[in-house]
Design goal:
Blueprint (H helix, E strand, L loop, with lengths): L31 E2 L5 E2 L16 H7 L2 H10 L14 H7 L3 H9 L15 H7 L3 H9 L14 H8 L2 H8 L15 H8 L2 H9 L14 H8 L2 H9 L14 H7 L3 H10 L16 H4 L2 H25 L2 H23 L13 H16 L5 H20 L1
């Protein structure tokens, strides 16, 4: 998978973001000097006549001039199925330049919505997908664009959208029943491309959609290998948490640790392993306590973290009620931080999808509640403390429920 194969560039034969107007001139043959040192002019090719702008449907499509194109159709000078020498249609140029109204008009006028053209041999929807024009892609799909077609390089629309990492466009395409593990000609799936590009949101989306985490390309590289090539720690961690094989080898006998060393991404690799509950060599961490399997069970952890706020609240009230205020407040802050740190250490032994509860919104609510409780309990009334306790119970239940 090389950078040249990544199709995040503009489709071949497509215009840049700002429509570039062609000058319509042919390259003339240079004058030829004969043996008598005279210039031979009779073989020079005259330049082609340039069409006026109001008659050049391709230029008008680039600029989104609907009224001028309607005039051409009404006078019979062009029709919606017009193609140039590269089989590019006006719909291609309208799609890549994000002219929604013109695309709709051309399609309703009978334009071939699945016409392939340009050096990339791609459809208008593919051109729009490479530029992340969500509304154009959605419009063309609604009018019957085939999402399963491939371009000249063998990429389908989902591959092309993955190259730029637009999650919203990917969601639109995933609802079109495109096979999520459909490979390109080299065997690379969309998950591999997202991991290689370093798009954590796309990696997470594909995994949640059921992409094969251990699928391999023709060289034996899995998505985890490609994530290590890029070195994005979040992508690596998500793949590990979803069960990616940490010891699988490529056709050349390279496991993920070897790839990480070669690509200078060992730091990201070890960090992802640590936060996923594994040792630096990829083996599972063993909890040095009796009944370790029970302590690491989901049932035990769910109940423990449901009761944890009540235990923390009991400690806080005990300190505040039994010590002078000038000593109770800093001691309470220290104990609250210590208990939070202890909870984070316990979570390192939890199942992979539970190891980041301390980073969730519910935990932030609990932490803020702790701060408010510490700073106001000394001067608050019993009624207010009752509301605080009720709030703690609600937040704790909400955390377990999520």
């Amino acid at each position: 998978m090389t950078s040249s194969s990544a199709s995040s560039e503009t489709p071949r034969g497509a215009a840049p973001t700002t429509p570039a107007l062609a000058n319509g001139k042919a390259s003339a043959a240079p004058p030829k000097v004969t043996g008598e040192n005279t210039v031979e002019l009779n073989k020079m090719t005259p330049p082609e006549d340039k069409l006026p702008l109001h008659e050049d449907i391709m230029q008008l499509a680039r600029l989104g001039e609907i009224s001028a194109i309607q005039t051409l159709f009404e006078t019979g000078k062009c029709d919606s199925k017009y193609k140039d020498q590269e089989d590019i249609t006006p719909l291609h140029w309208a799609a890549i330049n994000n002219h929604y109204a013109l695309c709709k008009y051309l399609v309703e006028s009978g334009a071939d919505i699945n016409a392939k053209g340009g050096e990339s041999v791609a459809t208008p929807a593919m051109w729009a997908a490479q530029r992340c024009h969500l509304y154009i892609v959605n419009l063309l799909l609604q009018y019957g664009a085939d999402p399963l077609l491939t371009d000249g390089q063998g990429y389908n629309m989902l591959h092309l959208a993955t190259f730029d990492g637009n999650v919203f466009l990917l969601l639109i395409l995933l609802h079109q029943n495109i096979p999520i593990d459909g490979p390109d000609p080299s065997g690379h799936t969309c998950l591999m491309w997202a991991a290689y590009k370093g798009y954590p949101a796309c990696v997470d989306l594909f995994l949640q959609w059921g992409a094969s985490v251990n699928g391999a390309d023709e060289n034996g590289f899995t998505a985890l290998h490609w994530a290590l090539v890029k070195g994005n720690p979040v992508c690596i961690q998500k793949l590990i948490e979803h069960g990616s094989d940490r010891f699988v080898e490529t056709n050349d006998g390279k496991n993920p640790a070897t790839v990480a060393q070669e690509m200078n991404s060992r730091g990201a690799w070890h960090r992802a392993l640590k936060e996923s509950g594994f040792n630096p060599d990829g083996t599972v961490k063993q909890l040095p306590l009796p009944y370790a399997s029970f302590v690491r069970s989901r049932v035990f952890l769910n109940k423990s973290f449901f009761l944890f706020p009540f235990f923390q609240m009991f400690i806080i009230f005990s300190v505040l009620s039994g010590m002078p205020i000038f000593a109770a407040v800093p001691m309470t802050v220290f104990l609250a931080y210590s208990l939070q740190w202890a909870a984070q250490q316990v979570l390192q032994w939890a199942p992979s999808d539970m190891q980041h509860l301390q980073r969730t919104v519910s935990n932030l609510e609990l932490s803020w509640g702790s701060v408010r409780l510490i700073t106001t309990s000394a001067i608050s009334s019993r009624c207010f403390c009752g509301y605080i306790i009720l709030g703690w119970c609600t937040l704790a239940y909400d955390r377990v429920d999520k």
